[in-house]
């Protein structure tokens, strides 16, 4: 299954549907101590085949 990213308009539509103005606002309810401080160290991409 391929990853198909959402367009900015689609993201705004989804946020509006749940009453959030931004992704930051969406995650603002999560206490800072539980948020990642740096990106996850995930190995490179793999082929789908």
Characterize the structure shown.
The structure is a single chain. About 0% of the residues are buried. The protein is about 30% helix and about 0% strand. The protein has two helices and no strands. The mean pLDDT is about 90. The protein has helices at about 10-15, 25. With about 50 residues, the chain is mainly alpha-helical. It has a domain at about 10-30.
Question: How would the blueprint of this fold be written?
Answer:
Layout: H1 8-17, H2 23-27
Report strand %: under 5%
Distance between the termini: 11 Å
Helix content: 25-40%
Query: SSE string, helix = H, strand = E?
Result: HH
Please summarize what this structure is.
The protein has 49 residues and is mostly helical. Helix content is 31%, strand content 0%. The termini are close together.
Key structural traits:
49 residues, mainly alpha
């Amino acid at each position: 299954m391929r990853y198909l990213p959402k367009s900015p308009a689609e993201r705004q539509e989804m946020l509006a549907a749940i009453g959030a103005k931004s992704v930051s606002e969406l995650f603002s309810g999560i206490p800072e101590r539980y948020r990642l401080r740096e990106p996850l160290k995930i190995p490179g991409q793999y082929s789908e085949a």
